[in-house]
Amino acid sequence: MAIVVLIGVLVLVVAGLAVGMWGERGGPRWARGVGAVAAAIGEAAAKSAKRNRRIGGGSGSSGDG
């Protein structure tokens, strides 16, 4: 079941990228809107990951080794 969900998420990501690129190249208005939403979600995810690394929530070596 988890594989089906992961494949679904992958399909949505690839479709979002394709529509975003289409919108950047002068596609219809809805394609530009979907591209803008995808870009905003990507920015939010990048900021969240950066904040987690700064706080120390990222995976890294703890120096115990």
Describe the fold and architecture.
By secondary structure, this protein is mostly helical. It has a domain at about 10-40. Helix content is about 75%, strand content about 0%. The protein is built from two helices and no strands. Helix 1 packs across helix 2 (about 30-55). It is flat and about 40 Å long. The protein starts with a helix and ends in a 10-residue tail after the last helix. The model has no long low-confidence stretch (mean pLDDT about 80).
Write a brief caption for the model:
With 65 residues, this protein is an all-alpha fold. 77% of the residues lie in helices and 0% in strands. Helix 1 packs across helix 2.
Please supply descriptive tags for the structure shown above.
2 helices; mainly alpha; 65 residues
Whole-number mean pLDDT: 82
How would a crystallographer describe the biggest sheet?
none
Indicate the structural class.
mainly alpha
Order of helices and strands: HH
Low-confidence stretches: none
Q: What is the oligomer described by this structure?
A: single chain
How big is the Rg? Answer: 17 Å
Terminal Cα separation, in Å?
37 Å
Structure summary, number of beta strands? 0
The gross shape turns out to be: flat
* Number of DSSP helical runs: 2
